[in-house]
């Protein structure tokens, strides 16, 4: 049972890193990124492939951050001048293109068979000690990410991106180029997604394209909306609540006769969608948001 709770903690922290990246992009800058999982997939495959070639894990993790960040630059330069709704569609399409590429590039990615045997982070440890070491590492990286985003939010750069979120026209009137700031934010958020995916790949030790479906992005959006999209603490709290619900609901089917685990998965998605609607209507600012604003 202890190993189970540690595993839940590791996965929760990985999703927390994803939520922090999306908080920076949407909560602080106003970028509607529906393709977050695309950068998550790029980072996972980058780190997995490099580590299988004998590249040390610190370098493969670094590459998992750099490659998605670089991939975000052309996406941003091409599409950030579009309206918000069109940008959301472009990012969603980008994530599906990424999944199609890793599915069909069989010689490189293994296609639908995926990549097994990815090196673990602490090969010298086994069982619960290995999981605790991973948990501590992901926890420290998550704390560093929180610290970094807090520093960004309080810096002149952070005040500029929040001004872009609130009134982009006014920022342009001051002679600033919002697109340049948006591209940088998109790259940083993509790098965080890449780091999260590297942890994911080396913890699970097996990745396939079906692990990187749009539902992952939807879950991250749900987490920041519940917690408060413009609050860093909201990303943390929202992710914790979401993961508690997703894992807790796995046991509900034991008390519901006639409902299988497969059916329960569909019910779970429906409930999450209903919660999203309720939060948008009743508390759009999220649990940690400013109660004076709606």
Brief rundown of the structure:
The chain is mainly α and 294 residues long. Helices cover 73% and strands 0% of the residues.
Q: What can you tell me about this protein's structure?
A:
By secondary structure, the chain is mainly α. It has one domain (2-212). It contains twelve helices and no strands. The protein has helices at residues 2-27, 36-52, 57-79, 84-104, 106-109, 127-154, 156-166, 168-173, 178-204, 214-227, 232-248, 261-282. Helix 2 runs parallel beside helix 4 (84-104). The radius of gyration is 19 Å and the shape is globular. It starts with a helix and ends in a 12-residue tail after the last helix. 39% of the residues are buried. The mean pLDDT is 87.
Average pLDDT figure: 87
Our Rg estimate from Cα atoms comes to: 19 Å
SS-based class: mainly alpha
The poorly predicted ranges are none
In angstroms, what separates the terminal alpha carbons?
A: 41 Å
Q: How is the main sheet built?
A: none
Short descriptors:
12 helices; 294 residues; 0% strand; mainly alpha
């Amino acid at each position: 049972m202890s190993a189970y709770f540690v595993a839940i903690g590791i996965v929760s922290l990985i999703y927390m890193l994803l939520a922090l990246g999306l908080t920076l992009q949407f909560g602080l800058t106003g970028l509607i990124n529906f393709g977050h999982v695309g950068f998550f997939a790029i980072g996972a495959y980058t780190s997995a492939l490099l580590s299988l070639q004998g590249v040390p894990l610190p370098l493969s993790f670094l590459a998992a951050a750099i490659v998605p960040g670089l991939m975000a630059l052309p996406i941003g330069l091409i599409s950030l001048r579009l309206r918000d709704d069109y940008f959301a569609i472009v990012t969603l399409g980008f994530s599906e293109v990424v999944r199609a590429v890793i599915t069909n590039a069989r010689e490189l990615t293994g296609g639908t068979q995926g990549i097994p045997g990815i090196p673990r982070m602490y090969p010298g440890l086994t069982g619960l000690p290995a999981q605790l070491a991973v948990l501590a590492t992901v926890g420290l990286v998550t704390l560093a990410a929180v610290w970094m985003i807090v520093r960004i939010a309080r810096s002149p750069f952070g005040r500029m991106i929040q001004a872009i979120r609130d009134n982009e026209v006014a920022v342009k009137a001051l002679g600033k180029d919002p697109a340049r700031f948006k591209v940088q934010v998109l790259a940083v958020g993509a790098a965080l997604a890449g780091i999260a995916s590297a942890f994911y790949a080396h913890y699970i030790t097996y990745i396939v394209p079906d692990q990187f479906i749009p539902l992952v992005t939807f879950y991250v959006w749900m987490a920041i909306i519940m917690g408060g999209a413009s609050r860093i603490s909201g990303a943390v709290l929202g992710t914790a609540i979401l993961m508690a619900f997703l894992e807790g609901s796995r046991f509900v089917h034991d008390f519901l006769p006639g409902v299988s685990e497969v059916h329960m998965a569909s019910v779970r998605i429906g409930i999450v969608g209903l919660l999203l609607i309720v939060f948008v209507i009743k508390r759009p600012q999220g649990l940690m948001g400013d109660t004076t604003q709606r």
